[in-house]
Amino acid sequence: MNKWIGLLILFVVPAVAIASGRSASTDPAPANVAQGQQIYQQYCAACHGQQAEGAANWNKPDEKGEMPPPPHDETGHTWRHSDAMLFKMIAKGWRHPFNKTDRLTMPAFEDALTEQEIQSVIEYLKTLWTDEQRTYQATESQ
Amino acid sequence: MNAFIYRLKSALSCFVLVALAAVIPALAQAQPELDGQPVKALTSSSSGALLVLRDSGLFAIDGNAATEIPLPPSDSGAQPTSLAKGADGTTYLAGPGLGVWRYNSGNESWQSLNNTLPDLEVTAIAAHATQPETVYAYLGEKGMFRSRDGGAEWAKVDAGPQEPVQAFLHSDMPGSMESGWLFAGTTRGVARSMDCFCFWGDAGDLRGTVSAISYDPAAPENVYAVVEGQLHHSTDGGETWASVKTPGTVTALTFSPVKGFVTAVEGGNLFAHGDGGEWTPVYE
Q1: How does residue B37 score in pLDDT terms, banded at 50, 70 and 90?
Q2: B133 touches chain A (CB under 8 A)
Q3: Which strands, in side-by-side order, build the sheet including B230-234?
Q4: Which of B155, B167, B219, B227 has the least CB density, counted as fewest CB within 10 Å?
């Protein structure tokens, strides 16, 4: 019986992954995605947008001389960063070095979220990218 | 008597030949400024010699001696235009029709790094400031390519700035999300991106076609760009720029560990920038 289950997993899981058009190795873990989406809506969407579309004119400094919150979907550059870098930015926050202010425009969430919760947000963000972007980001994460 | 005259003539001929054989190479080495051709690119070798790319070839200048380094074999349409120095001192040469080549100073030969590039139309290259195996190449509309293994495998990483790139630079200036910054001299001015290729933005308000770009490795916020022959200096990583007086129209620039900041001006002469702002000829 165990042998049949093993064979089923061996052949069916990759087939489903191929049929869905995504690489199994770059697929975000589904269990984490739902949690990550919920956390994203609670903590991130106010600045980065409900659909992760980012602020308007996000790639130019605003009137305060700060870089606005970028999109996290396929139009942004989040997919260019490794898991480790994304984790660090969520946990420790980020200030663009050429901002005219000194504050962390991206706040640190290490006191508000557990490591697992931060990781789940990253898994959710991966669902917003193209296959090509997911593959690129997986390579950067190696 | 005739025999004596014949011997005298033979001795004189031998003397003249020996003298010419000794003096001609020395003259060729001691007077690189006689070339007079504009300098297309500058960098320095692992030994500290200045590498000068002219229309007539590539020359290593060490003290007052110039030695020609034969260029790699290429088609007649190839135009060597770019030099870069890797973090380990490796010299890279590139250009349209030439692709990217690496110089092996040990056996004085060039190695082609073009096996996985889509074509040879490389208009600018940059070497990573701290990672010896990482090199960047710009191929016009085909975009920007990066190799992390010394040129064996290239992968497209970005389209690059909106305008065509004429000059390219990697810097280890602090503040990047990844390992450094990329500066691209374009037909609009200087574009800047972290080396994660997050996005290309204007580095300040400097406008015009940038033909050369460099930075001070000892103080990386200091970036230099040449716009239509005029040298400009930024002390804040490209946010603001000020023009710098030079002995002539600048065609190339580099930071040499031996000579410091060096520019080449129209006519082919090289000048080093002193601490007091003065320019002195690199060789006499």
Answers
A1: confident
A2: no
A3: B210-215, B223-227, B230-234, B242-244
A4: B219
Provide the angle, in degrees to the nearest 10, between the axes of the packed helices A115-126 and A30-39. Answer: 100
Is B33's Cβ below 8 Å from some Cβ in A? no
- Tell me how long chain A is: 142
| Helix/strand/coil for B37 | coil
Identify the residue whose tokens are 């500066």: B183
Instruction: Please identify among residues 219-278 of chain B the ones whose CB lies closer than 8 Å to any CB of chain A.
Output: 237, 239
Residue B19, domain extent: 1-30
A97 with B201: Cβ contact below 8 A? no
Q: What is the DSSP letter of B71?
A: P
Q: With an 8 Å Cβ cutoff, is A89 touching chain B?
A: yes
Residues B60 and B131 in one domain: yes
Please count the residue pairs, one from chain A and one from chain B, whose beta carbons lie less than 8 angstroms apart.
26
Distance from the Cα of A78 to chain B's closest Cα (Å) equals 8
Best B158, B192, B195, B199 member to test A by mutation, with max A CBs in 10 Å, is B199
Q: Is residue B283 part of a domain?
A: no
CB pair distance less than 8 Å for B175 and A97: yes
Domain presence at residue A34: yes
Position B282 in a domain = no
ipTM of the complex: 0.75
A14 lies in a domain? Answer: no
Per-residue pLDDT tens digits for B58-110: 999 998 889 999 999 988 889 999 999 999 999 999 999 999 999 998 899 99
B205 interface with A at CB cutoff 8 Å = no
Q: What is the CATH number of the domain that holds A73?
A: 1.10.760.10
pLDDT of residue B130: 98
Strand partners, B136: B126, B146
**Number of domains making up chain B:** 2
Instruction: Give the contacts of A54 (CB within 8 A, at least 6 positions apart).
Output: A48, A68, A69, A70, A71, A72, A73, A75, A76
Looking at residue B210, which CATH number applies to its domain?
A: 2.130.10.10
Mind telling me how many Å the CA of B198 is from chain A's nearest CA? Answer: 5
